[in-house]
Design goal:
8 helices, globular, five-stranded mixed sheet, alpha/beta
Length: 303
């Protein structure tokens, strides 16, 4: 006769998780998500301008530019910002492959985790850009107008030379004007807390109504773009070109003009700007290459 005890298998025990543990786990998920959001709201990026290989010695050689840019990239690798953006005049002589290749060689030493964004300047695409000059720049460096996202920033990069003097490429200039309106709509719908514009020429140096000159955008175009940016809640415009630091405000917009990594034209030494982003609070300071801080004040963006 079979042992009837072997005919029955014990039932698996049900494990009950106390309610307070379930609540605790849920809270941990929520707070870890919030911490991640706060983390990408607090970060630092570097704005550089005017590496301009060849400017120190009238295109005969570019050893000083090489030393300066190597120092800037080495300090960037040490400090580890979220990204670097170079606001134009990457080289001094448009189309010079030796200067272009030296810029690329040094830029390639940036740590792969740190994104670098290039912006076209008048020495990259000529003072009055032609379709051929624009095509050449795009082949060497990529798009001359584009958007990017980093943390809570929606960045809009413009070719300011097409704004400054569109005479030889009017169709390109018109296309950029149409494009920037679409980009601003995308920025508005993106949920980004900060919409920033990056270009080479500043719209103005100190005052939005200052007279036209070589270092700013003519007042008719200046007024049109500033009104457009105000409407879409752009709060910062970053530029270079002046080879000195300058700045001013137009309504709620701050115009920030940054000195050069390459050759200075005023009292500011070669250097770059460190920009701290803390939610919608933006602070920035220009540092000479030999006086950079030991560490960054804000966490690095991980997106």
């Amino acid at each position: 006769m079979k042992n009837t005890l072997t005919m029955f298998k014990p039932r698996p025990k049900l494990v009950f998780i106390p309610a307070f543990i379930t609540i605790l786990l849920a809270l941990l998920v929520i707070f870890s998500g919030c911490a991640s959001i706060r983390y990408t709201d607090r970060f630092t990026f570097f704005q550089m301008a005017d590496t301009q290989f060849g400017f120190f010695n009238e295109n005969k050689e570019f050893s000083r530019e090489s030393r300066n840019f190597e120092k800037a990239i080495a300090e960037t690798n040490r400090l580890k910002p979220a990204f670097v953006i170079v606001c134009g005049d990457l080289v001094n002589k448009p189309g010079d492959m030796a200067q272009i290749n030296e810029y690329k060689r040094i830029a390639a030493t940036l740590h792969p985790s740190i994104k670098i964004y290039n912006v076209s300047g008048n020495h990259d695409v000529e003072n009055t850009p032609t379709p051929a000059a624009l095509d050449f720049y795009r082949q060497q460096f990529g798009a001359d107008r584009y958007t990017f996202r980093s943390g809570n920033i929606f960045g809009i990069v413009l070719n300011s030379s097409l704004i400054k003097d569109p005479a030889k490429a009017p169709e390109e200039a018109a296309a950029q004007e149409a494009w920037v309106r679409t980009a601003l709509e995308d920025a508005k719908n993106s949920g980004s807390k900060n919409i920033m514009v990056f270009m080479h020429h500043p719209f103005f140096l100190n005052s939005a109504d200052e007279p036209n000159q070589y270092f700013n955008i003519d007042i008719e175009k200046r007024k049109m773009f500033l009104e457009l940016f105000e409407r879409y809640k752009v709060r910062q415009i970053f530029a270079g070109h002046y080879h000195r630091n300058a700045g001013g405000r137009a309504g709620n917009i701050e115009m920030i003009t940054t000195g050069p990594v390459g050759r200075p034209l005023g009292s500011d030494s070669s250097g770059f700007r460190i920009v701290n982003v803390d939610g919608t609070s933006i602070s920035h300071k220009y540092y000479a290459l030999d006086s950079l801080p030991a560490k960054l004040n804000l966490q690095r963006n991980q997106q």
